[in-house]
Amino acid sequence: MKYPSVFEFAFMNTPTTVLKPRKSPVQVRSTATVEALHTATIQVLTRDGLMRCTTTRIAERAGMSVGSLYQYYPNRDALLTAVLELHLNNITACVEKACQEGMGKPIAESIAILVSAFLQKKFKNPEESKALYSIAAEHDGLRLIVMMRKRIVSAIESMLHSAPDIHIDDPELVAQIVLGVLDGPARAILEELTTPQVEANLSEQLILLLRGYLQQYKKI
Amino acid sequence: MKYPSVFEFAFMNTPTTVLKPRKSPVQVRSTATVEALHTATIQVLTRDGLMRCTTTRIAERAGMSVGSLYQYYPNRDALLTAVLELHLNNITACVEKACQEGMGKPIAESIAILVSAFLQKKFKNPEESKALYSIAAEHDGLRLIVMMRKRIVSAIESMLHSAPDIHIDDPELVAQIVLGVLDGPARAILEELTTPQVEANLSEQLILLLRGYLQQYKKI
Amino acid sequence: MKYPSVFEFAFMNTPTTVLKPRKSPVQVRSTATVEALHTATIQVLTRDGLMRCTTTRIAERAGMSVGSLYQYYPNRDALLTAVLELHLNNITACVEKACQEGMGKPIAESIAILVSAFLQKKFKNPEESKALYSIAAEHDGLRLIVMMRKRIVSAIESMLHSAPDIHIDDPELVAQIVLGVLDGPARAILEELTTPQVEANLSEQLILLLRGYLQQYKKI
Amino acid sequence: MKYPSVFEFAFMNTPTTVLKPRKSPVQVRSTATVEALHTATIQVLTRDGLMRCTTTRIAERAGMSVGSLYQYYPNRDALLTAVLELHLNNITACVEKACQEGMGKPIAESIAILVSAFLQKKFKNPEESKALYSIAAEHDGLRLIVMMRKRIVSAIESMLHSAPDIHIDDPELVAQIVLGVLDGPARAILEELTTPQVEANLSEQLILLLRGYLQQYKKI
DNA sequence: CATGAATGAGTCTTCATTCAT
DNA sequence: GATGAATGAAGACTCATTCAT
């Protein structure tokens, strides 16, 4: 049974099949409450880690009682998943927009747009991005990730396809590689596995890298 | 407080002062027990996820009682860390060897060696590789990851430096990017976020990618 | 790390910075719960001894779940310590009051007051007194005992000092001995090591004893 | 079911009904082993406290395996009880001897002998004495304490009775009080509740105290 | 006989979830 | 609706005891 995520019922008009939410945020107060919960969740997640991110702490941080939390989410997982979904959708939408923007432009240019948009989003709230990886690993998180990945891959694919100066036989494959390449180093940085050196030059190097890669698909 | 890792007491003869190893496997069955624990840990991790990877389940899966687990590891974390360390060390050693092998060879060739070694190791036990990512995020896991990353980066760096046909001003930076690039798509596949298509062509594409990247550092 | 004792949050209005009291009994039932815990603790302690005085048993005896116990006390020790402190403070206050009362009176009279007050308190809830000896030996219990002892010794000392008919060079020493003398036989009785004979005559004998002792400090 | 204590089968010829010991220490080695166990027990008890005084630690400290420990004692309690019994018997025997020695002497003199013997024994190994109090609180310990107390009371009673210069109607009562009085301050010191001042003057003050007490039973 | 690996019941403690007020 | 007290299943970990080697 999949509970409606906040994302689904409050921020988008996705045609996803929506089960009855416990309570519809028809009133302003409700929306504010839900947002407070999200903020609190991310804060607690960041501060205390996934395991210590308990419903009580979230509620406390959000300035309400546990009981109220359960008025809006049927269980802890539903809340965490909602927060993750929100985050993922945010990134996805951004990347989609960037790809839209890069449509029809020469590959060198569109790559720069993509890289820039991707990194900007990921590193806007590094703590948040990092914290959310822990949720992502859990069962329901994977489902979301796969879904969002598909959307991003699709967007990149379109962009690659529309580039006037290259030709790729299997653009989906290349799009997947591109996404993986963007994600790898970004993740390493978020998990604090690298030197500041890398962080400083990441954007530049990724552009270099992807241009070098796609150069090889150049039309004669 | 650092507990002796399996690695330390089973594969090396480090004279490191070891903080009370719960028990060194002197008898034959002890060794078997420890190995059973490792296997079971990875299985449970894969099957149930980190959060549900409890000592009870591990022991049960390993066909022993919880007590036995605690004969060899002072706590859950120590076991998880030991398993991670074993795995990481295995990969690291392999990559180091590959880099050694690629020393002095033209970059196109050495890249192929590196990619091949890296992927081979990662995908030899996909389940294992995947499962261990979750531990890596944990406190003590990070320490290990950082340590191993350093070793790998260092090895790649040396290899890049020794390539006769390229010149890189900041080889460490590039090495870090290379590692990130290898890891990103590999991870996506392991976490089952991609299509079989990607898996089939990963090696080829990564070689293409890295060659394109490093091509740009070619000596005139 | 000092946990807030029941004493502190229920009987005094200390402005002491309290390290996260698990919960202050704001609702009526909370107070009842805390009291039930104290009673149960003493009962289990008496019936089963310190080692078998487990949180489960206490909760069970108090007619609640373990979880509830932990709503009010962060761990077993905190509960035991709180109960001990409550008890000790009760006795101490009584003895202090008795000493106050004996101030300035001839020694024979003040001794009678002291002995009477001490025994009355100790034997009012013999079970309780007995049970608490076992906690007293524990780490945090010792601290409390020492503290309370100091207060009692100090009170006795003042009383001795104020007696018009004796003169003692080292009243603290004598006060300590007096306290020890009161405690020894009382303890023996509480631990059921003696005959009823002793219990019946204890008060009389102690008065006899202490008078004989202090007689020797008589002014000429 | 009462298991034979070491004490019973190895050091005294008590007519106590003795159940078959697990193993009779007919060989020299056995006696040595048993002694090693006793020593180890007291050391661990002293060092780690009753709760941490595990069979494994005792065996380790005694330089043998747990299995061997169980060759000599059917369970942990039996060992602890045996050690306590040994200790108590030692003190008891000493006090009995002292009382024997004080027989027929004037009360002032015999009191000095008693006090001196009692304190000497108690403070010879303060750590040991203190540690053993924790065992004494447990079920089977009490039985022993009661038994030994009876013997001591009896001895003191005889001594009091034989004193040429006093007459006591109920010597058993007085003997109990005397013992309580000796034990109270001694215990306070052992539990480190007092000042060094008290420790230094204890003997003197106790003699003063008891003389003052018994003076009141002087024959005309 | 000695050893020490294995056992598992029993401890403390946490936390998602419910429900009376 | 909101609250927060109560619940109890579940997890980590310990240790007395047994028994195969």
Order of helices and strands of chain A: HHHHHHHHHH
Write the CATH homologous superfamily of the largest domain in chain A.
Answer: Tetracycline Repressor, domain 2
Assign a percent range to the helix content of chain A: over 70%
Number of helices of chain A: 10
**Oligomeric status of the shown chains?**
homotetramer
Radius of gyration of chain A: 19 Å
Spans of at least 5 consecutive residues with low confidence of chain A = 1-21
Based on Cα principal axes, name the global outline of chain A: elongated
Q: Write the CATH architecture name of the largest domain in chain A.
A: Orthogonal Bundle
Specify which chain pair forms the largest interface: A-B, 46 and 45 residues
CATH topology of the largest domain in chain A: Tetracycline Repressor, domain 2
Question: What share of residues are in beta strands of chain A?
Answer: under 5%
Q: Major sheet of chain A: size, sense and barrel closure?
A: none
Total number of domains of chain A: 2
The CATH class designation of the largest domain in chain A is Mainly Alpha
User: Tally of extended strands of chain A?
Assistant: 0
User: What is the first-to-last residue Cα distance of chain A?
Assistant: 53 Å
Structural class of chain A: mainly alpha
Average pLDDT over all residues of chain A: 87
